[in-house]
Amino acid sequence: MTDGKERAELLAALHAAGAASEEDEQELEALLEADPSLEAVVRDFQDSITALASSFEPLETSPKTLGKIQKKIAAEKGGLVSRLRAWFSNS
Amino acid sequence: MAQVQPTDPKELVAAMAAGDSGAPLKEFYALYGSTVLALLTKMLGSRAEAEETLQDVFVELWRRAPEYDSSRGGVVAWVVTVARCRALDALRARKRRHGNDQLQFFSQRHGPNTDGGRPDVLVSSTRWHQALRQAFKSLSEDQRAVLELSYFLGKSHGEIAETLNLPVGTVKSRILAGMRELRMMLPIIHRSMVA
């Protein structure tokens, strides 16, 4: 493998693993712009690490949790509607 | 009797993006809730904190549904990314509260063969999960350590080098080797699922 390809693969691996520095990310962005085929390498690594992260034994969730989530979303929706109403009434 | 086909996760995300927090969210939660809870419990090392964070993760997924772009990755990758970010936020908040680094190695906290939860609350394991865990176990100890520190504890390669007292170049090489190993195993796992 050429040094350039090796470097690109390293940056893609660091990015997917969450270990890339800001400079690494910028370098990877530039390489991706120059060579869009590198996207496939990034995607492969991301798929691998995602698979790993979703490989833990699933845990049963509490039945109450979904209700709590929906309540929080309803509060957000209410807040948004109130803000929109206030905006329209002031404009 | 005709079997009910589960909805395509992308359709569920589209419905949530349109503001629906009813049936689509319920189905989406049924699909990913237990996997996200397992990941959060592993990362946070606390079931109670994981349950709290789980709520935030799904509220955020609902809120950010309009931003989901299928050309950038599958739904599960998006879900895992949001969950990981939330867990890392919680770990950083804990670190600020305690004033020192409370982070521990994954394998120290859970052991290499632990299941991450009480046996009575485990959802049945699938062959997919078993195959993946087996794949992760086949990484070398060195590769596992750097991937755990980077991905699950959010440390940069510089921080990992400091933590493990290794040159940065060695850390980077181990991350690349570990990622290559994982990438190589994926097709094998996929094939084993089809067989």
3D structure, described in words:
- The complex is a heterodimer of chains A (91) and B (195).
- Chain A is an all-alpha fold.
- Chain A has 2 domains: 1-59, no CATH class; 62-91.
- Helices cover 79% and strands 0% of the residues of chain A.
- Chain A is built from 4 helices and no strands.
- Chain A has helices at residues 3-17, 22-34, 38-53, 63-90.
- The longest helix of chain A is centred in the last third of the chain and has 28 residues, at 63-90.
- The termini of chain A are far apart.
- The model of chain A has no long low-confidence stretch (mean pLDDT 85).
- Chain B is mainly alpha-helical and 195 residues long.
- Chain B has 2 domains: 1-102, RNA polymerase sigma factor, region 2, helix turn helix motif (Rna Polymerase Sigma Factor, Chain: A); 125-195, Orthogonal Bundle (Arc Repressor Mutant, subunit A).
- Helix content of chain B is 69%, strand content 0%.
- Chain B contains 9 helices and no strands.
- In chain B, α7 crosses α9.
- The longest helix of chain B has 27 residues, at 168-194.
Indicate the topology.
The complex is a heterodimer of chains A (91) and B (195).
Chain A lengths: L2 H15 L4 H13 L3 H16 L9 H28 L1
Chain B lengths: L8 H9 L5 H22 L2 H17 L11 H24 L7 H5 L16 H11 L3 H12 L4 H8 L3 H27 L1
Feature tags:
heterodimer, A: 91 residues, mainly alpha, 2 domains, B: 195 residues, Rna Polymerase Sigma Factor, Chain: A, Arc Repressor Mutant, subunit A, globular
- How far apart are the termini of chain A? 62 Å
| Rg of chain B | 18 Å
- State the end-to-end CA separation of chain B: 26 Å
Largest sheet of chain A: none
* Nearest-integer average pLDDT of chain B: 81
- Given helix and strand content, the structural type of chain B is mainly alpha
| Number of separate helices of chain A | 4
Name the helix and strand elements of chain A from N-terminus to C-terminus, one letter apiece: HHHH
- CATH homologous superfamily designation of the largest domain in chain B: RNA polymerase sigma factor, region 2, helix turn helix motif
For the largest beta-sheet of chain B, the strand count, sense and barrel status come to:
none
Architecture of the largest domain in chain B in CATH?
A: Orthogonal Bundle
Which radius of gyration of chain A do the C-alpha atoms yield? 22 Å
Helix content of chain A: over 70%
Topology order of chain B in helix (H) and strand (E) letters: HHHHHHHHH
Measured by DSSP, the beta-strand proportion of chain A falls in: under 5%
Number of helical segments with 4 or more residues of chain B: 9
**Assembly state of the chains shown:** heterodimer
Mean pLDDT of chain A: 85
DSSP strand count of chain A: 0
Structural class of chain A: mainly alpha
Task: Give the domain tally of chain A.
Answer: 2
